[in-house]
Every structure is written in structure tokens, then in C-alpha cells.
């Protein structure tokens, strides 16, 4: 099977340094507003801070993949004596909660690493050095890439229907 090179982009999170200032949420939501920089609503941010000031908990979590169905079981973590809420570490946009959904349309949000910029803006604007950006190259099998694309498209078709997806792609092509 043919192998292709894939760029892996990672943001390392040193959660112990986070003080919950939420600058990352502000900059991400402003960057992703339409038009860009026109508004700021942290509910639209692709990074969200789990905050429990009384328990001294500040945990940055990035929006990951959309999932059409909620899990049958839930995870609950206790770390260093601090108990985190159920699903606190999960990155999915999921039917079980409002996190990582566009507040007006309910469409799933996913971190795109600020595609088109020199680097992730949340990393640049976090003044406490919580977030560190890294890039590396890995060889992956071409078929695996195609499978991932198929899974992603199937989940969108399940949720929005084929016609809506076609309309959206047509709209995006016109913009390009
Ligand atoms: S900007 Fe940095 S310190 Fe502030 S909430 Fe985000 S990750 Fe935490
Ligand atoms: S990398 Fe960009 S899109 Fe992802 S959470 Fe940070 S600011 Fe938002």
C-alpha cells in the first residue's frame, strides 16, 4: 500500500499554568466570526476552558471530531484530588451537550489550527505559556487517509442529509 507524508500538528497543553483568563477563547471566536474579527463570543471558540474557580480548576480543551451519537457510558476523572465534571476531557461535538457547537446554527465546531495563519492564534495570545505548538512529519498509508475522509463525510451526511452537504460544498466552491 502506498505511503504518503502527513504533517502532524500538535498543541501541547500545560494545564497547571492556566489561570482561566480565557484570552484563547476570545481570540479564537473573534478569528472565526463572520466577517473575521467582527465579533467575539466564547461559545463560538474552538478552545474552551473548563472552569471551576472554587476548586482551582482551569482546563483548556480543544474541539475535536463531531460524533452523531453520545457515548453509552461517561468518564469522570479525579486528578490530584480535584474531581472533573463528566465528559470534561472529551473533545467531541456531541448530542449530549452544548459544548463545541455554533450557538446560532448548532453546527459542530472543530479546531482548524487557524488554517491560513502563520500559526495557532490561541498559542500566540496565551500569555502564560500554557500552549505550545509543534509540527512533525509522519508516513501514513494512503488508504487510511481515505477511510478517515469517508467516516467524516458519512457523519455529516447522517446529521444534515446529503442535499444540505451538497449545497454547502457548492457554496464553498463559489467562494473559492
Ligand atoms: S489564554 Fe492561556 S492562561 Fe488564559 S485561559 Fe487560555 S490557556 Fe489558560
Ligand atoms: S488553534 Fe486556532 S482554531 Fe484551534 S483553538 Fe486555537 S485559535 Fe481556535
Set down the secondary structure blueprint.
Blueprint: E1 3-13, H1 23-31, E2 47-52, E3 57-62, E4 78-79, E5 82-83, H2 121-125, E6 131-141, H3 142-160, H4 162-175
Antiparallel strand pairs: 1-6, 2-3, 4-5
Helix pairs in contact: 3-4
Bound molecules: iron/sulfur cluster (SF4) (2 copies).
Descriptors:
single chain; 176 residues; alpha+beta; two-stranded antiparallel ribbon; globular; binds iron/sulfur cluster
Strand order of the largest sheet: 1-6
Largest sheet: number of strands, sense, barrel closure: 2 strands, antiparallel
The unreliable regions are none
Structural class: alpha+beta
Order of helices and strands: EHEEEEHEHH
Bound small-molecule species: iron/sulfur cluster
The level of helicity is 25-40%
Number of strands: 6
Number of domains: 1
Calculate Rg over CA atoms. Answer: 18 Å
Estimate the global geometry from the Cα principal axes: globular
Which whole number gives the mean pLDDT? 90
Strand proportion, as a percent range, falls in 15-25%
Distance between the termini: 33 Å
Helix tally?
4
Description:
The structure is a single chain. The protein has 176 residues and is of the alpha+beta class. It has one domain (3-140). The chain is built from four helices and six strands, in the order βαββββαβαα. The protein has helices at 23-31, 121-125, 142-160, 162-175, and strands spanning 3-13, 47-52, 57-62, 78-79, 82-83, 131-141. The strands form three sheets. The chain has a two-stranded antiparallel ribbon. Strands 2-3 form a two-stranded antiparallel ribbon. The protein binds iron/sulfur cluster (SF4) (2 copies). One iron/sulfur cluster (SF4) is lined by residues 28, 46-47, 62, 111-114, 120-122.
